[in-house]
Write a structure and sequence with these properties.
The structure holds two protein chains of two kinds. By secondary structure, chain A is mainly α. Chain A has one domain. Chain A is 85% helix and 0% strand. In chain A, α1 packs antiparallel against α3. The longest helix of chain A is centred in the middle third of the chain and has 27 residues. Chain A is globular and about 50 Å long. The two termini of chain A are 17 Å apart. By secondary structure, chain B is mostly helical. Chain B starts with a helix and ends with a helix. In chain B, 30% of the residues are buried. Classes of the chains: A mainly alpha, B mainly alpha. At the A-B interface, α3 and α5 of A face α3, α4 and α5 of B.
């Protein structure tokens, strides 16, 4: 198994998280729940959702189309900086999942919780490896 | 031309770093705690998580643009892709400001009005600079 293959897998995992962002609104009943917010705050929430989804699309594209550049990244180059950013992004996301997100919801959806935890950990490990290698 | 562009990118980086520092004040100015009070806890946590990660992107783009502006105009696929993403990111933010946000709920203070002028000017500047970098990279 090569590192290129593992990065393609990271792209697949990112694509799945990207798609999950389209399922979440229905699963978490956004239509009812975010209507409790004032109009402006609701719009800020939607804009942040949109930008997070754009970020995921960008990361997916990078793993699929710029695979070779990420593998060959030299320290302090732009591809290396991107690997570092993604390592910090997904490394911190593991901690957010464990220590910040509502325990009751994680108990309610244990399969999703394990899937997300595994996905975030995999991404954190891959990008940390690319940063440190 | 390249020297002007790299200098413009450095200023873009500085602008984004300042934006990140100013972002600390946004929740208070826009009364996020009050606005999110009735929300169920997971969605409130998601709101904050998204906000922090979006700010993280701004910090990353700011540091890379300020510290490695040459890397962003070296004509490689990665630099073109990053500049294109940032041009789309900030271009979309200008459109959102004028055509999506309903600003009637924003507290009507002089500070908020001046902040909006400053923000929109910055978003426009960032859109122009990163678009310019894309054109240079493709040229």
């Amino acid at each position: 198994m090569t590192i290129e293959f593992l990065i393609y897998w990271a792209g697949f995992v990112l694509a799945m998280i990207f798609l999950a962002n389209f399922i979440a609104p229905k699963k978490l009943n956004y239509a009812v729940n975010i209507n409790k917010m004032e109009n402006f705050h609701r719009q800020v929430f939607c804009v942040h959702c949109g930008y997070t989804t754009l970020m995921l699309a960008g990361m997916t594209a990078m793993c699929v189309f710029y695979n070779a550049e990420l593998v060959a990244a030299e320290k302090w180059s732009l591809p290396w900086a991107l690997c570092l950013f993604m390592a910090l992004f997904w490394g911190s996301r593991v901690f957010v999942q464990i220590f910040y997100y509502d325990k009751a919801i994680k108990k309610k959806y244990p399969v999703f919780n394990i899937l997300f935890f595994t996905a975030f950990t995999y991404l954190a490990v891959i990008f940390t490896y690319l940063t440190l290698k | 031309m390249d020297q002007y562009l790299t200098t413009a990118i450095k200023f873009a980086g500085l602008g984004q770093i300042v934006l990140v520092l100013a972002s600390v004040a946004i929740p208070k100015c826009l009364e996020w705690n009050k606005g999110l009070a009735d929300l169920r806890s997971l969605l409130r946590q998601m709101f904050w998580t998204y906000a922090v990660y979006v700010t993280g992107v701004h910090l990353f783009a700011g540091v890379v643009s300020f510290g490695a502006s040459d890397e962003l105009v070296n004509g490689s696929f990665v630099s073109t892709a990053v500049c294109l993403l940032m041009a789309l990111w900030w271009g979309a933010r200008v459109v959102i400001q004028f055509f999506f946000f309903d600003r009637t709920d924003v507290p009507d203070t002089l500070f908020n009005k001046l902040a909006e002028v400053g923000l929109v000017s910055l978003f426009l500047y960032l859109t122009i600079v990163y678009s310019w970098a894309v054109i240079e990279n493709l040229g």
